[in-house]
Amino acid sequence: MSGSDSPRPVRRRTFVLGTVGITAAAGSAALAGPLATPASAAAFGYTDDGSNYVVDTGANLVFKVSKTNGDLTSLVYRGVEYQGYGGMNSHIESGLGTSTVSIRQSGTTILISVAYGTLRHYYAARSGENNIYLWTNKADTSVSATRYIVRVKKGLFLNDEPDSYTYTTSTIEASDVFAKSDGQTRSKHYSKLRVMDYDYVGWTTGSAGLWIVRSNHEKASGGPFYRSLLRHQSADGGGLYEILYYGQNQTEAQRFGLQGPYVIAFTDGGAPSSSLFPGTLTTSWADSLGISGYVGASGRGRVAGVGITGRNTAYPYTVGLANSAAQYWGSARASDGYFSIGGVLPGTYTLTVYKSELAVYSTQVTASAGGTTTLNTIAIPSSNDPSNASAIWRINDWTGTPSGFKNADLMTYAHPSDVRAAAWTGNVVIGSGSETSAFPCYLWKDVNSGLLVYFRLTAAQAAAAHTLRIGVTTAYANGRPQVVVNDTWTSAIPSPPTQPNTRSLTNGSYRGNNHTFTYSIPASAWLTDTSQYNVLRINVVSGSGSTGFLSAGTAIDAIDLLT
User: Which of 127, 468, 534, 558 has the fewest Cβ atoms within 10 angstroms?
Assistant: First the structure.
């Protein structure tokens, strides 16, 4: 999904509306053809207008699906057309070519099936519901199907959230990061949220709400902490996304198979019903519809653990399951570490326990259809958590995130150049009490390389060699730290670890592959005068990257000097 996927912003006056969940804006130009004639409400059922299948849910929702390519061409709620902007419909990726589209009614359910090469896509409506249930089965790479986008007409839900750019046309990076006149930045990438943090995205006016309720993401990639765009807005229109696979800052290979259901839901202004959320949605009514790749509840299992010991209770713990075919996750109970992950496809998975976002334990587990695999208490070895190592000093705790460092929270919803960001330069003094808050969450070769850390050592400490550790969460353009001590000792340039090869630090994500760099510093590097500060210089090195905030860089997790 490049910046060209979003409509060109046009400067115009806008207004802010009440919001629920994730909120933003929308828009559209007039659409031609069958879109120009919204369907009218009737009893539950469907008709064929020659170009589209027209489905009336028997509630307040009428929608049309193109018989040619499976596009959603009309979306009328309480008589108002919501679908479309810029002459474009709602659809998989940027739309499919000529497809085989069919429809059938089974009692209180209507299913529209779209076949395009090896891709299968489905729309389902239920009598009396203002919802559309969607599934997408991508079998291989022959079809580009990384998202479903609901395109929404202009003027219906306007606001000024971080992932909108209604108020500006000034781009500062590529064609998808914008700067307002007041110095704040906007981009469709700035959702703030990890996958595990949200159940739905959308907008509300207070009297009408339009939402996408996400699927369980079992066929997506990146795990529970993955961040990607969820919606966008300009004065020309808006989009809501279900991301099936997103290559930007991606840490895993693409998974294939049936993803869904995800739900387009209308409300009278409130949030969508929690019964639609991943983890609570039940679809036994879809068991007999013949959806390709569909596995009902009876064909799935559960993985549970009675507890986890060795946790640092100051942090949340998450348990993830992953193999090449599927991924799942669940939270460990704060009191004892109990967890239960349901709806798991049969198979053998790598089970990983995360302290915040740092992997601290891993094992293999097998899930079976119709059963529960129960694990005895998991004991995290003390050595698995780097925070347990004895340190002379430590900047931040080891969590797999830059949380706590300067500008860390802001960077999930703003560009580093944003006026709200504190200065990216500035040195750090151990013992000042502001070591973590003064240390920038990101280091770039062209922005703040050469940051200095001042610290004193006792005579005994200065007489010994020590190990310095620098943990990172991702890197751009192979940026990695090389260190210099007291301008007398310089480390070797470390090899770059495997990291995503796309933008990350400038588009709202610090999530890559956690990696720890270690440096063995000899005693000869330290100052022997204990009243003087030793000086650690951290440089960012790389032969790649461009300039400024797109120069080689890295996100910091923690830094410590071990005893």
Answer: 127
Is residue 209 within 8 A of residue 272, CB to CB? The reply is yes
Which tokens is 219 given? 């066929």
The helix or strand, by DSSP H or E, that contains position 438, with its residue range, turns out to be helix 435-438
DSSP 165-177: -TT--EEEETTTE
In 3-state terms, what secondary structure has residue 550? helix
Identify whether the C-beta of residue 475 lies closer than 8 Å to the C-beta of residue 520: no
Q: Read off the pLDDT band of 42 (50, 70, 90).
A: low
Q: In whole angstroms, give the CA distance from residue 164 to residue 168.
A: 9
The DSSP output letter for 440 is: B
Q: What is the mean pLDDT of residues 535-558?
A: 97
pLDDT tens sequence across 455-474: 999 999 999 999 999 999 99
The DSSP output letter for 437 is H
pTM score, whole prediction: 0.91
Can you list the domains of the chain with their CATH numbers? 14-283 (2.70.98.10), 297-382 (2.60.40.1120), 386-562 (2.60.120.260)
DSSP string, 57-103: -SSSEEEEEETTT--EEEEEETTEE-B-BTTB-BEETT---S-EEEE
Q: Is 324:255 a contact under the CB 8 Å cutoff?
A: yes
Nearest to 261 by CA among 246, 241, 239, 277: 277
Tokens of 457: 């050592």
Tokens 């780097």, located at residue = 386
Cβ-proximal residues to 130 (8 Å cutoff; 6+ apart), any chain: 57, 59, 60, 61, 77, 265, 266, 267
